[in-house]
Specification:
By secondary structure, the protein is of the alpha+beta class. It is 37% helix and 23% strand. It has eight helices and nine strands. About 12% of the residues have low confidence.
Length: 326
């Protein structure tokens, strides 16, 4: 049996990973020998150090194992060199994001942009290919019944086409509010119109809405780095009645020129929606064409999410991401 040759440049992510992990320990100040009693007092105790290392090692091992289990396996299944190159670039981006999150700090912006773009471009290509395959199988505008969810949203079952946008939500519990970029990049909604079509009623004990009660505030960071951050302030006081949030909500967005957008609602708050897909996200309408995709990090008293604009042609455009804190 012939074995597939893996290009030499594909070994770059593995080489970089091994080099950085090997060099991290001796360079980290926590592992340098104290020079004085004053220095010693600043170091972690042995138990605290072990706990910190175990948690970091567990998280790093989990993420790298997932890369090998899913992405490397996908690469080895590919036959065309062009597809192999795109997949290897995606994997390189993911390896760097894991390193940035777990081992490194003060990352140059151009390096961070490259890693995010590599993952995002690959996700976009996979989505385009998935749509083309569906159309070729079922004709214009049709989705095979075996691949459609209860709300008519396609559920991807082909591992070579990549996961659907909400499949990474299984990792939501490990996401840190101050480092949500990797998770949010993997959960970008490509077609907001489909996700907000109709209205899916809430259960009376929906924990997401319960956790959103009160005041949250934070910054919206744009994908376009030339734009300055906007301030987002949200106040919610509601309860669920007949499957719909009812009460009052104020969504205040302060732009860089101090222009303020106030979205105030009372009574039936249908501007708060669940997605048509089986996702943990909530969609908040901000006017007619802008949307906030929100995830509650309950143990951190924080909300993270993506901010979108729906163009006149109906396309969904990702503008940025945000973190709000109570």
């Amino acid at each position: 049996m012939l074995q597939k040759k893996i290009p030499l440049w594909f070994g770059l992510p593995i080489f970089i990973l091994g080099t950085m992990v090997a060099s991290w320990l001796p360079l980290n100040p926590r592992f340098q020998k104290p020079q004085s009693n004053a220095d010693s007092a600043a170091y972690l105790s042995l138990d605290e150090l072990n706990s910190s290392l175990e948690a970091k090692n567990k998280n790093l091992t989990k993420q790298l194992t997932e890369l090998a289990r899913v992405d490397l396996a996908d690469y080895l299944r590919l036959q065309k060199e062009e597809e192999q190159f795109k997949k290897s670039r995606e994997l390189l981006g993911k390896v760097f994001l894991v390193l940035f999150e777990n081992l490194l700090s003060n990352i140059p912006q151009d390096q961070m942009d490259f890693a995010r773009a590599s993952v995002k471009d690959a996700s976009s290509d996979a989505a385009d290919q998935k749509t083309a395959n569906i159309k070729s199988e079922s004709g214009p505008g049709l989705v095979p019944a075996s691949r459609a969810g209860a709300a008519g949203v396609q559920v991807n079952s082909d591992p070579q086409q990549g996961p659907v946008w909400y499949s990474h939500e299984k990792d939501l519990a490990s996401v840190q509010a101050d480092k949500p970029e990797q998770f949010l990049a993997s959960a970008v909604i490509k077609d907001m119109g489909t996700e907000i079509k109709g209205y899916k009623k809430f259960k009376s004990n929906d924990s997401r809405l319960n956790g959103l009660q009160g005041f949250f505030a934070g910054d919206l960071i744009f994908e376009d780095k030339r734009r300055k951050p906007w301030r987002i302030e949200m106040t919610l006081n509601s309860e669920i009645a007949e499957g719909v949030p009812k009460g009052s909500m104020n969504l205040r967005i302060i732009q860089e020129d101090n222009n303020v957008s106030n979205g105030t609602g009372s009574g039936d708050l249908r501007g708060i929606q669940q997605t048509a897909s089986e996702s943990k996200a909530l969609i908040i309408h901000e006017g007619d064409k802008n949307f906030l995709q929100m995830y509650l990090l309950e143990t951190q008293d924080s909300v993270i999410g993506n901010y979108y604009e729906q163009t006149d042609s109906g396309e969904t455009k990702l503008l940025g991401h945000f973190t709000l804190r109570r």
